[in-house]
Design brief:
- With about 475 residues, the chain is of the alpha/beta class.
- It contains 14 helices and 24 strands.
- It folds into 3 domains: about 200 residues, FAD/NAD(P)-binding domain, CATH 3.50.50; about 110 residues, 3-Layer(bba) Sandwich (FAD/NAD(P)-binding domain); about 100 residues, Enolase-like, domain 1 (2-Layer Sandwich), CATH 3.30.390.
- Bound molecules: flavin-adenine dinucleotide.
- Flavin-adenine dinucleotide binds next to helix 1, strand 2, helix 2, helix 3 and strand 4.
- It is an enzyme of class 1 (oxidoreductase).
- It catalyses: N(6)-[(R)-dihydrolipoyl]-L-lysyl-[protein] + NAD(+) = N(6)-[(R)-lipoyl]-L-lysyl-[protein] + NADH + H(+).
Amino acid sequence: MANNYDVIVIGSGPGGYIAAIRAAQLGLKVAVVEREHLAGICSNWGCIPTKALLRSADVLHTAQHGKDYGLTLEGSITPDIKAIVARSRGIAHRMNNGVGFLFKKNKVDIIWGEARITKPGEVVVSKSTKKPVEPVGPVPKNTLGEGTYTAKHIIIATGARPRALPGIEPDGKLIWTYFEAMKPEEMPKSLLVMGSGAIGIEFASFYRTMGVEVTVVEIMNQVMPVEDAEISALAKKQFERQGMKIILEAKVAKVEKGANSITATIEKKDGTTEKITADRMISAVGVQANIEGIGLEAVGVKTDRGFIAIDGYGKTNVPGIYAIGDVAGPPLLAHKAEHEAVICIEKIAGLPNVHPMDKLKIPGCTYCHPQVASVGLTEAKAKAEGRDIRVGRFPFVANGKAIALGEDQGLVKTIFDKKTGELIGAHMVGAEVTELIQGFVIAMNLETTEEELIHTIFPHPTISETMKESVLDAYGRALNA
Ligand SMILES: Cc1cc2nc3c(=O)[nH]c(=O)nc-3n(C[C@H](O)[C@H](O)[C@H](O)COP(=O)(O)OP(=O)(O)OC[C@H]3O[C@@H](n4cnc5c(N)ncnc54)[C@H](O)[C@@H]3O)c2cc1C
């Protein structure tokens, strides 16, 4: 039967498209249903277009500091927000075309429309009811359309969308979600960012570098609340030096809208309140899973705190139905979605030695200036678990390459199990740490000890030497500090 598959994947984000390609590689007949854009949030509205915006911010920052490098730049350097956004959108479209190409190359069928599971093994695809953020597309050629499709295995990879707080719902004009923040028509003069997780801080960093007056309000006692407290404190100091205003342990209680601005009432932990008026506000208080309208109730798939409940291989409680990526719970990261996709498909295909997801080894990166990256346990979490630990630290200010780059503000912190010497956490703030963290991720994956790291040769001069020095410091052997 033409409409019958081994695997149907609902959603073509990093979870869905990687699942489809891996399934095709393993000889399974596979189709992906997509209702809006190939490549999901990550390529269209998340990871990639934000990094394109932040790259423009980095170039602007470097140009503005040309003098520090002995360069005299004639005239003023002014950001052209229309051109910056056009570059970012162009890159997003290039990415989603790339996924279309990969599907074609791997002979993955694309079914264009909105999918709903009607019973185990059956998916009904109808015309999408979702109002697209941008004109849909480009819809790839030769896609299949509305109809009933069957498959032995159905993988739900429908992702997530912005969460809204009651009374402070984004309206797309004065109160933005990441969609509007990604493509402003003009640069606001002032901006209030509610929430300092990765999404909030990346936008705060972008707009501040562009010269916007930025205030960040965070309910917890540190910015980027999931990060190690020391790393977060150093990042905050740098943001404040750049002119960002950060209010911790405070919440946006009320927002009044004016003709072209908002006035927010901020309630602080000490009981005081402050009113802040800004041209625009970004609501960055997290995301919620797309679990509605896909037939979960019809087939009895269980959810847990708003996400589909799965085991370490992506299996739900209903045989033949799986979930991966954002819809299956935190951390809500593209590389977590991709890894879950591979595990899920390889288990379906019956490959030997498929390891379940180990969430402790998922790195997290925030591409603000300075960058922040981490993997494993924070110092506070390790202590809360009752672990006996050794902690090493090394500052960028003692690293030759960082000084040569003019990027001497940063810190690497490593956490070891005192008894076994196993690396159980690594935390970094500073230039290029989102690239460097992978060294520690590999080390943790191989269950590396301090001994092996100390005997690893790091190239000189590189910022990566701060990683080795941090390990040495944990054992009282730092050479350059
Ligand atoms: C601003 C921003 C920046 C980010 N930056 C990073 C980053 O730097 N690094 C990182 O790792 N992560 C980042 N993320 C998170 C990352 O984008 C997500 O974790 C990732 O996209 C999740 O992939 P997914 O496949 O689970 O879902 P998604 O990418 O959300 O894809 C789901 C797809 O399913 C489709 N769909 C939904 N319902 C249906 C249906 N019923 N029928 C058919 N199709 C359907 C949607 O149209 C969508 O294309 C960022 C997110 C945002 C918003």
